[in-house]
Design brief:
Length: about 400
């Protein structure tokens, strides 16, 4: 009887397993031998090499060169935001302003610095009535906000540090030495409202007591702006909505949380349309986490440009048909563009203070200090034709 043929194994899978096994064996051997040879730094470097090797076998984005080949930009691995603002309310008129600095470090070592100043003018009003022990009220506020920003790009943290130290003593002198990479301006409208129902109870001694109450809060803000840099211009629309948020006895029944901020960006350069991008920020699965997702569509590709053209043909005030074209553009970007997802751990040490009183007039004072630090904990990307791949090149 002829001998049975040998059992065949899939070559690709076997090779991958053998490669991982070989890396693990070498890692274990050198981890033991290196300290004995006086090479204290070898295990850490070896760990990085092994991690990269396993990453390559898994088909993820492992190195900066892999990211560049896939058309992916460096990740923002950390950023910190500092700033403050104040507002004064007289009767129902509110006037305020503020400023913020944002310093962001990327995975390729580069650093961006942004300074934004804003001014706000708002008005508020309300209507209420009482019927027996019941009372009801409606309040609303509208505010117009304008902001101007300027940004700088630095090749490394040391250069950014020198700029920030110089800017501390005078921004004009620092700008003369380090010219701005881009400037931006935007104008927006914010609306908020509250509607509630409550009860006024009378105690045994005749005094009035506030009884159970319930209310619903809704707020929305939108802004349109432009960011202009050497050879390119980006127009963007940002919107953020919160509601319906409930207060009082309805807490947890109607609360649907926040949506946004959501941004749509359109970029042109000297050659014409360059990119259409959609950005969204949501709460993460764990407390203290936020997730940023961005879908990009390269408009140098004809089929992508056609989809974007149907959306961009609309002019304000936008007709209802714009929403169908917007959904089509987002779906096309998700399917044929690049989708990046970044998860950040957030530490928010911001503080605020509100004081109200009556000195012949109704007066109010608001002050706030922003202190927010974010650190990248997870990043992934999907390019056209690929599965979702972890971005190990962004590991801090």
């Amino acid at each position: 009887m002829a001998p049975s043929p040998p059992h065949l194994h899939p070559a690709a899978g076997q090779g991958s397993l053998e490669y991982v096994g070989l890396l693990a064996l070498v890692a274990a051997a050198l981890a033991v031998a290196a300290p004995a040879a006086g090479l204290a730094g070898v295990p850490a470097e070896l760990s990085r090499v092994v991690r990269t090797g396993v990453c390559i076998v898994g088909g993820d984005v492992c190195r900066a060169s892999d990211a560049a080949a896939a058309g992916l930009r460096p990740c923002t691995v950390s950023d910190r935001r500092r700033g403050g603002g104040a507002a004064v309310t007289v009767l129902s008129l509110k006037v305020g302003g503020g400023h913020e600095w944002l310093v962001a470090r990327r995975s390729d070592g580069s650093v961006s610095v942004t300074k934004v100043g804003s001014d706000e003018l708002g008005a508020s009003g309300g209507l209420g009535y009482e019927l027996g022990p019941l009372k009801a009220g409606v309040e609303g506020e509208a505010a117009m906000k304008v902001a101007a920003g300027v940004g700088w790009e630095f090749p490394d943290a040391a250069s950014a540090g020198r700029f920030l130290r110089a800017a501390h003593h005078g921004l004009s002198g620092a700008t003369a030495r380090w010219p701005a990479a881009w400037r931006s301006g935007e104008a927006g409208l914010a609306l908020s409202g509250w509607a509630g129902l409550g009860a006024v109870l009378t105690g045994e001694d005749g005094t009035s007591l506030e009884g159970p109450s319930a209310g619903i809060e809704v707020s929305t803000a939108s802004a349109f702006g432009a960011r202009i840099g050497p050879g390119s211009t980006t127009l963007y629309l940002r919107t953020e909505t919160e509601g319906a948020h409930t207060t009082g006895v309805l807490d947890g029944l109607l609360d649907v949380g926040s949506i946004g901020p959501v941004l749509a960006e359109y970029t042109r350069d000297r050659s014409g349309p360059r990119e259409l991008a959609f950005r969204a920020t949501t709460q993460g699965a764990r407390e203290g986490r936020v997730v940023e997702t961005v879908a990009r569509l390269d408009l140098r590709i004809h089929s992508n440009r056609e989809v974007a053209a149907r959306l961009l043909r609309h002019r304000a005030p936008w007709p209802p048909s714009v929403f169908a074209d917007l959904r089509a553009a987002v779906a096309h970007a998700v399917r044929f563009g690049t989708v990046e997802r970044s998860v950040y751990a957030v530490e928010d040490g911001s503080k605020s203070l509100e004081v109200a009183g009556r000195l012949g007039l109704e007066l109010g004072l608001e002050a706030e200090y922003a202190k927010v630090d974010r650190r990248l904990v997870e990043a992934s990307a999907r390019t056209a034709g690929s599965q979702v791949r972890a971005r190990e090149d962004c590991a801090a």
